[in-house]
Amino acid sequence: MSKLTHLDEQGHAHMVDVSEKAVTTREARAYAEILMLPETLEMIVSGGHKKGDVLAVARIAGIQAAKRTSDLIPLCHPLMLTKVSVELVPDVEKSAICISTLCRLSGQTGVEMEALTAASVAALTLYDMCKAVDKGMVISEVKLIEKKGGKSGHWKIEG
Amino acid sequence: MSKLTHLDEQGHAHMVDVSEKAVTTREARAYAEILMLPETLEMIVSGGHKKGDVLAVARIAGIQAAKRTSDLIPLCHPLMLTKVSVELVPDVEKSAICISTLCRLSGQTGVEMEALTAASVAALTLYDMCKAVDKGMVISEVKLIEKKGGKSGHWKIEG
Amino acid sequence: MSKLTHLDEQGHAHMVDVSEKAVTTREARAYAEILMLPETLEMIVSGGHKKGDVLAVARIAGIQAAKRTSDLIPLCHPLMLTKVSVELVPDVEKSAICISTLCRLSGQTGVEMEALTAASVAALTLYDMCKAVDKGMVISEVKLIEKKGGKSGHWKIEG
Amino acid sequence: MSKLTHLDEQGHAHMVDVSEKAVTTREARAYAEILMLPETLEMIVSGGHKKGDVLAVARIAGIQAAKRTSDLIPLCHPLMLTKVSVELVPDVEKSAICISTLCRLSGQTGVEMEALTAASVAALTLYDMCKAVDKGMVISEVKLIEKKGGKSGHWKIEG
Amino acid sequence: MSKLTHLDEQGHAHMVDVSEKAVTTREARAYAEILMLPETLEMIVSGGHKKGDVLAVARIAGIQAAKRTSDLIPLCHPLMLTKVSVELVPDVEKSAICISTLCRLSGQTGVEMEALTAASVAALTLYDMCKAVDKGMVISEVKLIEKKGGKSGHWKIEG
Amino acid sequence: MSKLTHLDEQGHAHMVDVSEKAVTTREARAYAEILMLPETLEMIVSGGHKKGDVLAVARIAGIQAAKRTSDLIPLCHPLMLTKVSVELVPDVEKSAICISTLCRLSGQTGVEMEALTAASVAALTLYDMCKAVDKGMVISEVKLIEKKGGKSGHWKIEG
Predict the structure, then answer these.
(1) Any domain includes D37
(2) F35 located within any domain
(3) How far apart are CA D92 and CA D45, in angstroms?
(4) Taking CA atoms, what residue in C is nearest to A60?
(5) 0.90 cut: is pTM over it?
(6) Interface residue F82 vs chain A (CB under 8 A)
(7) Where on this chain does substrate bind (chains A, B, C, D, E, F) (predicted)?
(8) Interface ipTM
């Protein structure tokens, strides 16, 4: 197993040099879910377009957060995303909203952090909008699903 | 169960009016954990102060994210935190880093979102620093632990 | 007519001292409209909730912009808004979307700039989402409608 | 007339994929004007360099806002502007300050929103600096003047 | 000599708790200077209002930086400045521009960092605008001059 | 000596056009030092890893500030850094912490401002963390050390 790339030989944090990495199309998919009371889920999904804003606000927050990733995560490189999407799907069985994100760019570094940040912030935004009725919601399973492009190539979550 | 406060009668998102709420001391504690391979955890905790930067970077990122919450979460009120702390504790049994955050202020609205955002971003920062060796890490159990102050009073997670 | 308060005696810009101003409830309402082709307006309003995201995105962008006003307008004071709302109403006769904003806080300085910034950014966001089909849209009538609180008292637009 | 590109088939907002678009030189010119009382205009333009800061502050605010466009407008792509200019010309006949902006870059997406945002924020900054003497100022005619580069080619406002 | 307040007993960084500190008027004055070639200074000061923008841009950049201090300095508390001024005075003898800043607020924590950040960023902005003609400029003597208010009381630089 | 490039013929600030400049690897090294009481320096360096956070926080703040340079310095171009490092070395003889920064990217404009901003903000962050024990610290010798790449070629500080 290789060493932690974000620390130099003295164990000091630095922003890794990617100057020599190839510019390739890179893509990442991430996931998060927020578990809630059945009544909370019902409030979000019922009422048709009237409640549409709840999911729309979370979607927008996720997209904007992807763009601010290098500002939030100290050692992330700034980069220029060429696509971001955030999909929110209610899952009545799990009593959860499931969040799937996709980020893409043509650049020198991967976009895993952008996809993960979008998923996390979309989930936090749902928490914010529903916390008056359900403080016990839990955000879970925030994880990378797939990654393409770059030297390390294709990676996909197991199972 | 009351309705979603962040939507008006037409179902449109707005920033809730807190002008008339009392200025009281408010406090929130949140939690998150990031599960990883035992080898990854070993890399973070071994080596004494040399690896100290990994946890320090995550701690700082969490503190700064708390301050940017109203910029990230669309309907959050801007507020002036008077205290933020982020504690990171390795848990060898779980093969995880456990993150506990505390936010406090004297103001008109609660700081739950600030505490949750700090925990999430600290976890994402750990993911970023270790992703070169372990892409399968999972952030989990992001939740509010306790909340004090304000009209809704004291709330504590069950169990 | 008094002098420009944002310049000192040498004509140099500064951020005006409001340390001694009273903390009172302050409120401002602003307006903007964006004129477009009838076909463009039709695309936004038709289709029921499916197109709902267009107005929701503009609403969120306006709310977030209000919170960032002191970052955008160099001599604005930072302040803590306690309420923001952005209302978007299609006007078929004018072939326009009409935007009305309201900002409120309890503080030492007024919130006119916050209300005007929210209206402007909501309008720009509509332009962005529709520009692929209608580059000739025009944002117009960006103005303060009403202002309450503070030493200068109540002000309302004429006519 | 094509459909709204910023919504997917379900009517959900997303950041459009520009990964496959060509990198070309792109340029946009925008315009805005702010109408004011003749006395207000007189205060800005008189006094020679002493009042120079009013126009300088608006110019700087416009340039900085252009750089923050993707942060303000939710579905805008981040991009790296290679030139921004903001020109402010007093027009005594109209009793207005006329604002012309130009943005340029070599990239995968156009810079219309950057030019329009620069013009809007320069106008809002003028409002801020003069509002103590003239609350009735109106920002008007915020529009795209010209656009070059990219697949949709050259576009110029009519008339 | 007391211990470093920004570290807890384990040596971990945290944002100090100021919840219990009194709200008082607090003020800080800071200073910085940028030394340059006599020809560079001559270019800035000559030409009357034509070159006025150089000092105006630095002034605005300093004011805006003061407002962003808590975003830049990880352990600074967010606060609401009620006054900022940045004064730039050419000193032909020293061949330098001397920068004096003043920040004020009524709050629970001091504004030393805001005054120092304003001075530093004003100096960096001057460097940026003149670097094409003089890369050897040096920013020096960035220091706190005076501090009033708060528990630690009045402090003034010696000599 | 050429004229100030950041002003147009009327002396108005603008963001210089770099559209036609070549994309080359560019690099800059900068320096800053912060002078303090010997006791203050002793507090930072003693205690081994327990005090490690002080230097780690300053390092992270410097890295993050480099990424925000175009947001802080009004006429700087946005750019995508591919490497940032910030090194902090205690110098007992000088009773100072010496800060050396390095920024690199492949782009159309130089990274001098990014390296200088990183050094300044790292120094300000040290000031913040130690100000409770030593308000008289002075940041000094903020300067460019070396610059490579671009049309103006290699530049190195004299002496």
Answers:
(1) yes
(2) yes
(3) 10
(4) C57
(5) yes
(6) yes
(7) 75-77, 113-114
(8) 0.95
